[in-house]
Structure formats: structure tokens, C-alpha cells
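<instruction>
Derive C-alpha cells from the sequence
<data>
Labelled lines for chain and fold
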Amino acid sequence: QIAVVPNPYVSTVSWEPTNYYKAGRGERRIYFIHLPQKCTIRIYTINGYLVDTIEHDSPMEDGSESWDLVSKDGMNIAYGVYFYHVDAPEIGEKMGKFAVIK
């Protein structure tokens, strides 16, 4: 049941004003939902480059984790298709994809 929302994510430009709520958009984030209590989320480009790693550790059994669309190198990600890999010890793995569009 693990999924990414919204998918696709309709991105705005990085120089958009930081007060997103006046425009009604909210923060620049996607959410991984229906996560087990402990897992590692890895995000890759379509070419297999590791974009970011997120460690999820929560007391909730059906939790969520947000990602700010910034790479491990501190750069805003480009538009395109990304793959994610969720690794949950003793539970299993889940792979999927999401898109960031302009």
C-alpha cells in the first residue's frame, strides 16, 4: 500500500515566494504514505543515480514521511520521473515511481 502523493507532483519554480499559503499551494513536498514503523526510503533518477535517502522511524504502524524535493547534495531536483525503493527490515521491500512535472 506504500505510495507517493501527490503523483505527479506539479512543481513550481525554486524562486517562488516562500509564503506558499497565500497562493494556496502549500509547501514544496511530496509524501510517502502507508509506511511501516521503520524503513529506509531511497530515491533514484531514471538513470539510477541516488538522489536522496530518508530514514523513517515512527511509532505509527501506518505512517508517512515527507520529502522537500531537495537532493542529498542540497540542490532542487529537476523535472522528470523518479524511482523510490522502500526497505523495511523483517517486512520486505517496495519499489515504485513518481513524476515531477512543470
Q: What stands out?
A: Strands lie at 3-5, 9-10, 30-35, 38-45, 50-57, 63-67, 80-88, 92-101. The longest strand covers residues 92-101. The CA atoms of residues 1 and 34 lie 6 Å apart. The mean pLDDT is 86.
